[in-house]
Amino acid sequence: MEAASVAQPEHHGPPEAHRSSRVEPQMLGMLLFIISEVMIFGAFFTAYFFIRVVNNDAWPAHGTSLPKIVAGFNTAILLSSSVTLHWALTSVKNGNRTGLKAGMLATFFLGATFLFVQVNEYVHVGFAPHDSAQGSIFYGLTGLHGAHVTIGLLLLGIVTVRAFRGHYTPEEHRGVEVPGIYWHFVDIMWIVVYSTVYLL
């Protein structure tokens, strides 16, 4: 009777949020965000395939051409940035701060180079979004991806600054890993865009 009457500690405030033991909140949030971004890209690809498959229109539009070789080199640049980012993450996990800093700097500059080449391509491609439906889709898909690269560069810039300030350790490196997942997503989406828009 005496044991039964022992009062349990009183809990104040709202109940603790339910957390999955398998996926951390930061990781889950990024994965859900990426799923939503896939749907946005899906809408643009639907328009692209409608023009090419349903309407059977020429791609690119008659009298225009796409710089496949330049875009191919640019693809290699962007894929290289995924390698350097992986190097940075592996380095911080192993306590290698020099590798983290060098990897983040290399990733940022490779991403910035990709964006610069993409903008330069727009200047010299020879057609505008309003010239044809094909032009609208081309600028829409590549521009949407370019916007994601820009966001990714902002995230990478923050991670790089924090890396140089000593904010990451082998135990605490989510700040590198989560933005890294976004950057790898951006790279994968470019492979899809390059394969369908430039090569098919």
Give the end-to-end Cα distance, rounded to a whole number of Å. Answer: 79 Å
Query: Ranges with pLDDT <50 over ≥5 residues?
Result: 1-5
Instruction: Provide the gyration radius in Å.
Output: 23 Å
**What share of the residues lie within helices?**
over 70%
Q: Briefly, what CATH class?
A: Mainly Alpha
- Give me the CATH architecture, please: Up-down Bundle
CATH superfamily: Cytochrome c oxidase, subunit III, four-helix bundle
- Counted up, domains total 1
- Count the DSSP helices: 5
Strand percentage lies at under 5%
CATH topology: Four Helix Bundle (Hemerythrin (Met), subunit A)
N-to-C SSE series?
HHHHH
Q: What structural class results from the helix and strand content?
A: mainly alpha
The biggest beta sheet is recorded as: none
* DSSP strand tally: 0
What does this protein structure show overall?
This protein has helices at residues 25-54, 68-93, 97-124, 133-164, 174-199. It has 5 helices and no strands. It is mainly alpha-helical and 200 residues long. It has one domain: Up-down Bundle (Four Helix Bundle (Hemerythrin (Met), subunit A)), CATH 1.20.120.80. It starts with 24 loop residues before the first helix and ends with a helix.
Q: Which features would summarize this protein structure in a list?
A:
200 residues, mainly alpha, Four Helix Bundle (Hemerythrin (Met), subunit A), globular
Concise description?
This protein has 200 residues and is an all-alpha fold. It is built from 5 helices and no strands.
